[in-house]
Amino acid sequence: MDRLTDTLKALIQPLLAIVVGLIIGAIAILIVGGDIVETYTELWRGAFGSFYFTMNTFARATPIILVGLGVALAFRAGFFNMGSEGQMVLGALSAALTALYIPGPGFVKMIAAILAGMIAAGLWSALAGWLDSRFGMNLLITTLLLNYIATLFTGYMVTYPFKDRTGSALQAQTEMIDSSVMFTKLFKGMTVHSGFIIAIVLTILLHLYIKYTSKGYEIRMMGGNPLFASYGGVNRGKLMVLSMFASGAFAGLAGASEVLGTSYRFLDGSLVSANFAWSGIMATLLANSHPIGTAVTSVLLAALQTGGMGMERNTDVPSEISSIIQAVLILFISARITISFIKRKKAGAKDGSAT
Amino acid sequence: MGQLLDVSLFAATLRMVAPILLAALGGAICARVGLFNVGLEGLILVGAFSAILGNYLTGSIAVAILFSIVITLVFSLLFAYMSINLQANVIVVGIALNFLAIGLTTFSLRAIFDVKGAYYDKDMKGLPKLDIPLIEDIPWLGDVISGQSILVYAAILIVIVLQIFLYKTVSGFRLLAAGENPVAARSLGLHVKSIQYAAVLICGALCGLAGAQLSLGNVIMFTEGMTNGRGFIALVATMLGQSNPIGVAGASLLFGFMEAISYRLQNFSIPSHFTSMLPFIVTIVAMIFFRNSGYKDEAKKSSGSSR
């Protein structure tokens, strides 16, 4: 019973935030002279109006969920991993290059590409963890700065050495991967691909892992009370490098699944401008680092984004309304964490973890 | 080498330093009262946008600067309220503020200027350049120091003013005390909360100026996310300078120089990807060598006082 109310609580609070976000969004709609009901109807239609649009939303949610899970893992351990964007593009590039240049049957190439993406991103992320544990360099700042380096590096790779010179030479992108390596589409003619299934399965696995394994307990303990954790014999440095590796690997998987399932090549800037990584971080913050909650909020953010595009097609209201609503959500969240903290304090801190 | 390190490079350095320095000083003031402000990036972005907006609406530079200060002040009030009154985790509030800044500026860019990505008007005037008499006539120095935008000089002036304020005035000591040991400060009858508010507001005003220099000084335009990591670099400058105005100025000078060099290197046949990476790499490397051992305690203190 307790568990049920806990799960419900994890879901109710983000929903409340969304209501507030929609109210502020309504004000923004009024400012640009739109009709609130019509605009929100179009927003809904763009996100869930038909089976096609719903699947489209799920396709967009796929990388957001994966990034979000990785960030949730790091946040749970108390590490502010803000480097998902860099990790994701590195993962995507590694996956694309592996898929292009490794010989072998399609399935082997696909697995190799996924692993390459996860390992490259994981190492990049673990580097930040190592720098923190070894040199005491603030993880939050290094991960932020490493984003820029990774994005520029991948940009260089597809502008010079691995540029696609077969087709139009204008775009900085790799060649297209072989069709045998591509993820299968779940439904014919729809954008959603098997990456979505992977994301959902991983959501449940991560939830169980954090909740029921001893490593998961160490992670929660480190995030809840670092001093207690080190007293209990948890090696902070080791846990930091490992959980940052895992966290980055999730972001790398997100990049790989975008390459193998949607774009079929690495196109410079496409992942960054779609804002997948930051949406993932937002989803995690919204769900208070709860894996299942993260998946739900990821779908909601994806819906806001795809709905915003649909809304822009059919009304005069710019799709940027979505970014306003998202920003309000996130602000509401930082206040909400506070409220839950005060509550916890009042309850005598009986539960140290950030559930 | 002579081609690389010429006069205009050093002049460009001063231009690049100004936004980083102004924001880093703001960050330093916040750090001094125990608030680690990750929201600098967002504050600068808001400042940059409001400066362009003020200029667009009134055509006056003075009003544009005022605009950017006032709007960033409102923004930093939000930060202050959340982190001081609601006792929220300062880092989460800072991150949220960055999201809010990006969301609001892209939306306003669309709603007010009806453009996507960037706003540019060739008739718009930038910050006035100041020629300093006497110095202007010194051969090399004159070309570097004279003829910069007024905010560059303002930044240098603010460093000196802050240094004196923090270490020579009573209110400066009170500010330091409020951050050093809030409980002791409170027992002396200091109103720690209002001191923290004041610090956050000073930080907001400085970030507004930083934004104005960015969008009206370095270039005359606004592009989405034009801060491009400068807020985070400023944060590192704050840490390296140990939140001491002159130290912060030194660190900002290093990063501004790297930025100027990265633009300059584009003229050589080096891919722009690598030249743009330079400031970030140098920033990370600097974090290793100039590790601030007291920083961890500071972070502990800040999370302690915020909770």
Essential attributes:
A: 355 residues; mainly alpha; 75% helix; B: 307 residues; two-stranded antiparallel sheet; two-stranded antiparallel ribbon
Describe the model.
- The complex is a heterodimer of chains A (355) and B (307).
- The model of chain A is unreliable at 348-355 (pLDDT under 50).
- Chain A has helices at residues 2-31, 36-48, 51-76, 84-101, 106-135, 139-159, 194-212, 214-224, 226-231, 236-263, 270-273, 276-286, 291-314, 321-346.
- Chain A starts with a helix and ends in a 9-residue tail after the last helix.
- Helix content of chain A is 75%, strand content 0%.
- Chain A has 355 residues and is mainly alpha-helical.
- Chain A has a domain at 62-272.
- Chain B has a domain at 19-128 and 140-227.
- Chain B has 13 helices and 4 strands.
- In chain B, the strands form 2 sheets. A two-stranded antiparallel sheet of chain B has the order 1-4. A two-stranded antiparallel sheet of chain B has the order 2-3.
- In chain B, α6 crosses α7, α10 crosses α11 (245-264) and α10 (230-240) packs parallel to α12 (272-289).
- Chains A and B meet through α6, α12 and α14 of A and α4, α10, α12 and α13 of B.
Task: Give the helix/strand layout.
The complex is a heterodimer of chains A (355) and B (307).
Chain A: H1 2-31, H2 36-48, H3 51-76, H4 84-101, H5 106-135, H6 139-159, H7 194-212, H8 214-224, H9 226-231, H10 236-263, H11 270-273, H12 276-286, H13 291-314, H14 321-346
Helix pairs in contact in A: 1-14, 2-3, 2-13, 3-7, 3-8, 3-10, 3-12, 3-13, 4-5, 4-6, 4-10, 5-6, 5-10, 7-8, 7-13, 12-13, 13-14
Chain B: H1 7-32, H2 40-58, H3 61-85, H4 90-113, E1 118-120, E2 129-130, H5 139-145, E3 148-149, H6 150-168, H7 170-180, H8 182-187, H9 192-218, E4 221-223, H10 230-240, H11 245-264, H12 272-289, H13 295-306
Antiparallel strand pairs in B: 1-4, 2-3
Helix pairs in contact in B: 1-5, 1-6, 1-9, 1-10, 1-11, 2-3, 2-4, 2-9, 2-10, 3-4, 3-9, 6-7, 7-9, 10-11, 10-12, 11-12
